[in-house]
Every structure is written in C-alpha cells, then in structure tokens.
Amino acid sequence: GLALLGESDHMAGQCAWAVAQLYEADGGLGAAAHLIRGIVDNPFLFHDVLTMEPAAAAWLIRALRRLRDEARAEVLAVETERVLLGRGSPFLVHRASALHAVGVFERDPVKLSHAAEIYPDIWASASAREDLGVLLLKRNSHRAEAIEQFEAAVMKYTKCGSSRDVSRVTNRLWELGVRRAQTRVANRNGSVDYGLTDAEFAIARLVSRGLTNREVGSQLFVSRNTVSFHLRKVFRKMNVSSRVELAAVWRSHVRQGEA
User: Fold this and answer.
1) SS in 3 state form for 151-176?
2) Tens digit of pLDDT for each residue in 102-136?
C-alpha cells in the first residue's frame, strides 16, 4: 500500500500486483478485479509488472479470463509479447515470461513447455508447469502428461515455500486419483500446536477469523466436506466444541499478527 502512495522503495506496479494477489487469496477474484483491470489499463503499472515480475502477465491473463474480460486478456498478451520480446531484451526471464503469457492466452502447450524449461525463477517455472498441466488435462489423451506436469509443479512450489499453490495442485492431483502426502513447506508463526497437521492448521486459522466452511474451502481449494472433516479433528485435538471457542483459544495462543 505504501508503494502505491509513493512512500516505499518498491515499484508501484510490483506492489499493485502483490496486493491484487492478496485480495484474490483473501476475498476471491472479485475482490481483486478492480486492481487487476487497473494494472492492465495503467501503462506505467503495466510496464513495471511486465519487466520486474516473472509470471505476472500469465497470472493476470488467467484472472481476466475468469472475469470474462477477453478483450483485456488479448491486449495484455499482445503487449507482453511486444514489450518483452519486441525490444530484444537480453534477459532470459523476459523471454520466458512472454512465452508463458502468450502460451496461456493461445493455449499453446509448446510455448508453455518452453517457458517452464527456461524460467530462472522457480515459482514462475512451477506456474508454467501447472498451466501446461491444466491445458494437457483438457485433452483426454494427455492425462498422464498432465499429471507429470502437476507433480513437477508441486515439487517446485514446495521448494520455494508456496503452501497455497502446493495445496491447490495437490488437491487437483487427488481429484485425478493420484495420492501424495501433503508436504510441509513453511514454518508456522505463533505458538499453536496441539498436534495439528498443516491442513488442520490452515483450516483452523481461517475458521478462527470467522470464515464459513465454503469460504475456507474456496481459499484452500478443497470441498466443504473436506473442511468439515478436518475441522472436526481440530475441535477434538484442541478440546473445543464450537467455532467461537476455537477463535477464542486461537487468539489466546497466536501472536496478534497471526490471529
């Protein structure tokens, strides 16, 4: 927020994209829609994001398509290719970013595969592999290849500590019948323990903030039934019988920043 007001050393475009991601994670895509469109419509923010943030353009194109804003998605794809490739940038990450963004827009598996291979950024490479997996999955004869890409994405997301991305792709693998253990990707802040698994910890934290099971499931990319299943175990482990009690216990044990 400070960067958007000119009170930070960080680039405004980078921070606008970061805030858009936070809004999307916390309140869904609709909550971030105004920021997403604002980035694309503002040439200064747009150029900053393109040149400084790997995979940002691909993320924005996916978001715009989910918002059914195909016109802006097309503008973004064309401008990404022009800005990052048309000027002959010497940076490999710019070539990878352009291939990723255009590959998402054109639904081109060759470009997505190439982007995933040459990205120097681990998270961006994982994102390209996930996009490739989604595309291959839509082609019935490429299910095995899609699973391979999802597995590679999980490994990369785990390596860079991106727990929300790990959860999303792991649940997609479960839907495909591929069972893999949830991988711990980051240390927890605060003192809550009670023997909670990573999934239980994530659900308990969101429920303690007042979110419904549907809202928790939306954020963690799991069904309401899965949330209910884990929440029952949380109640038993933490010796509480209601969401109100859970919130009270959570606030008493976790630092203010985590509550």
Assistant:
1) HHHHHHHHHCCCHHHHHHHHHHHHHC
2) 999 999 999 999 999 999 999 999 999 999 999 99
